[in-house]
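Example: HEPN domain-containing protein.
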Amino acid sequence: MERSRDFILQARRDLEHARFALERGFYEWAAFSAQQAAEKAVKAVFQHLGGVAWGHSVQGLLEGLSQRYPVNEALLDGASELDKAYIPARYPDALPAGAPFERYRRPEAERLLRHAEEIYAFCQGLLPPLD
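Written out as structure tokens, the predicted fold is:
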């Protein structure tokens, strides 16, 4: 069953959650939700192509997608940054000290959200329009 619509809709919702968290100072959750939005957006494209994408590395997923579509270096660089938020944004033992909410700051969360928005827009452009 082809589920690209489900993936891209959830990616859009994850972006909304990232914005909501950012506005309220939950920067670690903004970072993680941005990573999730980008991951699900790329997986939506794989679904549309009839494939299944495994893993959580946005950079790895985009590199796989680059075998079919041109993916620019800026997107890959942003994906690499997003990958670094996958675990440390949630788990204190992934950081040398401090809880994630103490370590993530607004500028970083804003930057990760921009990367996720760019990846989402790129992937949305490869998919049929949403109703």
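The chain has one domain: 4-126.
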